[in-house]
User: Fold these one by one.
Assistant:
Number 1:
Amino acid sequence: DIARTVSAPAPLSSARIENFGAVSYPTGIQSPINADPQGKFRYNRDFLMQFMSVCTDKPESLPSLEALGMDENDRRSQSSG
Amino acid sequence: MAQDNLAVPSGDNKYVTVFNDPVNFNAKHPLHNSWTLWFDNPGKKSNANNWEQSLKELITFDTVEDFWGVYNNIMKTCDLSISSNYHLFKQGIKPMWEDPANKHGGKWSIQLPRNKTMSEIDNIWLYTMLACIGEAFEHADEVCGVVVSVRKAFFRISLWTRTSDNQDVAMSIGRTLKKSANIDGTLEFQSHHDSSKSQGKAWTV
């Protein structure tokens, strides 16, 4: 069913990349360099860090900070611990 | 494992990654494992001994993109209140000794003095998680999960392993963790069995 997902790519349907040879990264973006010969997905830190400033949307299923007891008040009431 | 040519788009119909188009991308970078992030702050409850009740499963993800969506929308470690913990474990493994995957395992850990580590702890924890999701460990199947604990005087980083009887395997994991997370100091390994009793023999890196 991976094949089915990929064969009909629609915006935001977000298939899982199966073949990095079919990806062309923009100039300045490092490709995953330690691709594992056994078909395992391995990424080094430099590659992963490139996503930090790009993937900022909150996942819908992530609970709110308040629901976790992690509200902004914590941050303030705890300054110099 | 085998070439799955069916999964490769043909011709110009290539994957559009988040770097190509941050809004209309159609392909994400898969992780080898699915990971679940847990959070707990037992100190906030009046009955602090009921730890399991305060343990919250936040979310499970299996792509690089989704990891960052989570990371960018939760509190940084340095902003968490005292006695909080984040746990990042492979999906299906609960962050507790009793889980079958942890029962015979152990952990690498280090306590980092709070005052000296405040400015670095966010990166140390981030790099620890990246080593896990990026599969930096030679014996990656041995890795169950990682924990950061916020305490009054220190931060503790721990990596939980599936077994605790093979020193070579354990040492390899310890060395990779220390290097990947830029940890300055000595990590100690103890089996969960030992640490629940008195001091056992400790391996260090």
Note: The mean pLDDT of chain A is 74.
Number 2:
Amino acid sequence: MIEQIKLERFTAFENLSVSFSPGINIIIGENGTGKTHMLKAIYAACDVSKSQKSLADKVNRVFLPSGEQIGRLVKRKKVSTTGNFEVTRKIPSINKSLAIRLSLSNHTKEPAKATVSGAYKQWQEHPLESVYIPVKDMMANAPGFRSLYSLRHIHFEEVYADIIDRAFLGSLKGQADADRRKLLEILQKSMDGKVIAKNEEFFLKNKQGELEFTLLAEGIRKLGLLWVLIQNGTLLNGTVLIWDEPETNLNPKLMRTVVEILIALQHMGVQIFLTTHDYSVLKEFDLQISQGDKILFHSLYRNKSTGEVEASSADNYLGISPNSIDDTYGGFVDREIEKSMGKLGK
Amino acid sequence: MKIDADGFSFDFTDAINAFVFDEKDESKPNYHGLPMKAVDIVAEFSDAYIFVEMKDFHDPDSYNEVLAGDEDDGKAKRANFKWLKNYLKYKYRDTYIFRHAEDKADKPIHYICLLTFDNALNTRLQKSLMQELPVGKVSKRWRREIANSCHVLNVDRWNINFPKWPVTRS
């Protein structure tokens, strides 16, 4: 379970520390406040515990800076500078918190020259399953992508290849437990079918037949991906699910199902990180969470005087401040009043 | 002109007149006393009137009507949009009729509902309320409008938009 991230002069962040809920973490903020960067740093740290790769390599492939020069991830300054990020996780089996840190300078050209410190050996002795769902759907583009990615140097952030790998993991042996079966049924009802894979191609299978993913609405593909990840056991107790903007291409009505599933996954012990720009995501969580649910809303915003990214966290929807999503609606309220009441009251 | 009503304190600094419209105290000159629905406050300015209705959902008493017959408390209450919309609509219409009979509907009237929802929910409620009051000259037969505009907002937005009428929770 990821407990905390600290970022110093790394990408958009000058100096930021955020503590996370062991359940659901929802990150909001305007464009350019580093939401996706935070997700990617968390994901890289999770992934190396299992893949046994170097953290610097993983970060470089996940962020994909120009020319793959890892030093470009240091926050841009006019002078030479160094940056780092540190991720802390709690390992229940040894009841201990461990931290790993990646440090680099803006002159660091190769990942091998970056410094990885902290409890890296212990970190890798306790593998952590994680999955990162990127904004763009990859399910329809799966055929051939994995072999192409492994054979050729194509310019794709590694999260796209990783998600296809996770989706192609074989099913767990035996019947799914009752919790997973219930979630799979909810998703099957919403997308009217099950997902099957044939020769690296995904299909939605129902009474009408098999429909290839390229012919499916992108929103349904997202539900399909969730179905696959639950069905193949990727999303189990102890997994970290990271989802960048789940609302993309999803009809707001389907968001109710997605949030229902996410809350249920949290009950099953999955730790969730997601970013959103969408009111219906926030409101669905506000309406569906119950007492006892573990949820934190994290708002990333730029300090008006320093211009630096800061964060505030709240355990309930109304406590989010600033709330960049609701502020947009507030702007509509202001313009409507200005339009119809002019200077009255001003 | 300071007014205290329903847990809020207003100061209409540039008002010609402002008073509690649904006054229940018979000794007050603006005692309402009729079996009609009534908004909380009416304020008069040189070129307009405003009708103000507050609904504080942090006040448990405010929940009672909404709760009737519904077990799923907070969520259902917030979901009970139709009830709230009608509540706000009929308050305005009855108040308009009362003011018309007083011969005090002679300037544009703006209806402002002060709720404790977020901005997004407020804008949704406002849209329905504008259609149903209705706002503007919506019939070809009408020579005048019964409501010039309608706004649903929370305390933060009120204070941003109406600096001459600051409001606080009393």
Note: The radius of gyration of chain A is 21 Å.
